[in-house]
Amino acid sequence: MPKTDWFVYIIEADNGKLYTGITTDLSRRFKQHQEHSGGARFFHTSAARKLVYHEVLPDRSTASKREIAIKKLRREQKLALIESKTTTDG
């Protein structure tokens, strides 16, 4: 069975709020959030605007633990995390 990478991601909503989740397929999951087809209720009040951050992780367990750690961060810390990834990606 081939190894599947997991992603932890942050999406910015139209209202500026940040949503964190995990998936094995970033583009499919983002599309689901935009179309409200299997996406989180979080996006029922404000549409998913853009994917602002993601990390690749080796398995679901690691991705879930990282998701929880990110969700515990204050907004300012999440924005710093997003900024640090943006500056290292070029």
CATH topology type? GIY-YIG endonuclease
Euclidean distance between termini CA atoms: 34 Å
Give the neighbour order of strands across the main sheet.
2-1-3
Largest sheet: 3 strands, antiparallel
What shape does the CA trace take?
globular
Which bin fits the share of residues in helices? 40-55%
CATH architecture: 3-Layer(aba) Sandwich
Give a written overview of the molecule:
The protein has one domain: GIY-YIG endonuclease (3-Layer(aba) Sandwich), CATH 3.40.1440. It starts with 5 loop residues before the first strand and ends with a helix. The chain is globular, with a radius of gyration of 13 Å. A hairpin with a 4-residue loop joins strand 1 and strand 2. The chain is 41% helix and 27% strand. The chain has 90 residues and is α+β, with helices and mostly antiparallel strands. A three-stranded antiparallel sheet has the order 2-1-3, with helices on both faces.
Annotate the secondary structure layout.
Blueprint: E1 6-13, E2 18-23, H1 26-35, E3 48-57, H2 60-71, H3 75-89
Antiparallel strand pairs: 1-2, 1-3
List keywords for this structure.
90 residues; GIY-YIG endonuclease; three-stranded antiparallel sheet; globular; alpha+beta
